[in-house]
Structures are given as C-alpha cells and as structure tokens.
Amino acid sequence: xxxxxxxxxxxxxxxxxxxxxxxxxISNHLYFYWYRQILGQKVEFLVSFYNNEIxxxxxxxxxxFSVERPDGSNFTLKIRSTKLEDSAMYFCASxxxxxxxxxxxxxxxxxxx
Amino acid sequence: DAKTTQPTSMDCAEGRAxxxxxxxxxxSGNEYVYWYRQIHSQGPQxxxxxxKNNETNExxxxxxxxxxxxxxxxxxxxxxxxxxxxxxxxxxxxxxxxKLIFGQGTELSxxx
Lengths: 113, 112
What we know:
The complex is a heterodimer of chains A (113) and B (112). By secondary structure, chain A is mainly beta. Chain A has strands spanning 5-7, 10-13, 19-24, 31-37, 43-50, 53-57, 65-68, 75-79, 88-95, 103-104, 108-112. Chain A contains no helices and 11 strands. Chain A starts with a strand and ends with a strand. Chain B is mainly β and 112 residues long. In chain B, the strands form 2 sheets. Chain B has a 5-stranded mixed beta sheet with strand order 1-9-8-3-4, with no helix packed on it. A 4-stranded antiparallel beta sheet of chain B has the order 2-7-6-5, with no helix packed on it. The radius of gyration of chain B is 13 Å and the shape is globular. Chains A and B meet through strand 4, strand 5, strand 6, strand 9 and strand 10 of A and strand 3 and strand 4 of B.
C-alpha cells in the first residue's frame, strides 16, 4: 500500500536554529498538508498546499514557517528560527483529491533544546 | 467547521463490535463526516467518510442518522490492534484548503 514517507523520524535542534522536515507524498497525490501534535495535545492543522501554492494556513503557521515542493516529489516544512514551543510531532499528509480522506506519514518528532 | 462531541473513552471486548458515537448537531448540508484514528502517536489513519448514506469499507461501517445530527462508527470485530484514539471530524467540501480540525476523540480500549 502506498505510503507517505517522512524523514528524519526524530530531530533534535538548538533553539534559534533552522530545521527542514522532509516528506515524500504518494506519487499521484496533488494535495499536501502539514499538521503538528504537541505531546499530549490535539492534532493541529498547519498548512495545505496545492498547485505549488499555499491553499490555507492556520494562525500557527506564521512567518517562521514555510513550505516548498522543490522537485515534484518532496514536500518540505522549514522552521526558520526554532523555539522551545515548536517541539512536537510533525505530520505530513497527502490526498489525490481535496474531497477525500488523506494519508498521513508516521511523523517527525522535533525536539528543540 | 461544525464541531463534534464524542465520549472521552470506551472499552470493548476483543471480537465484539465496537460502536463509537459522535454528535454533530450543527452540521450543514455540504459537510461530510470523516473518521480517523491514531494509534499511540503514530500518524492519524483515515477510516471512512460519508455525507448522508451509510458507508462500509474493509475497515468499518459508518451509520449516519437521517437528520445527520449524529453518526456511529462500527468496527464489526474489534481486535487488540484497534486500540486507538478515534476522531470524528466534520469537514466542508467547500473548505478551501481541505483541512481537518481534530478534537480530543474517543480513546477506545479493546480488552482480551
């Protein structure tokens, strides 16, 4: 069964450093998403991406965050200057159509120290 | 997006049907009901979705009441591996970005 692949599975970074979280969506999917989950809290929407542009973003997704689909297969989330409160599991997801259940990756655990 | 109400937790005996309820009394006509589950901090997993007709797939059945104000997810023969948090989410298909708004969900424990 096709999978959404995320790397790395765990990343530790120092506060103020830039991090890039990587995702390879399912190959024929056109809609891409990032969510995050702080330990013990709800899964929160960050951003959706379609046709090489952001479709929607949440209040969490401020100027420190950016997304990119650099080569037609990867989908990345960059955090420019990490803060302690950015520590969370970050999940990438993709779907073939907008009105469809989507497939999540297994996540990247980001720890900011 | 409409909000949903789910019980915080439920138990189910292995091999029995698990029936997970969800209330979505403010759902509007163009909003679908989606169910996802999350097993111990793994990525959420899509289960099923529907608009007004009952739906069934290899994982589960979704029963939506005629007035669409509530629904039930049925796992026909629960196994220990079905222990997870189950999320009922209402999503508009006019939603520009297709985002999902997760609540706290129902923590289902399947017991031997």
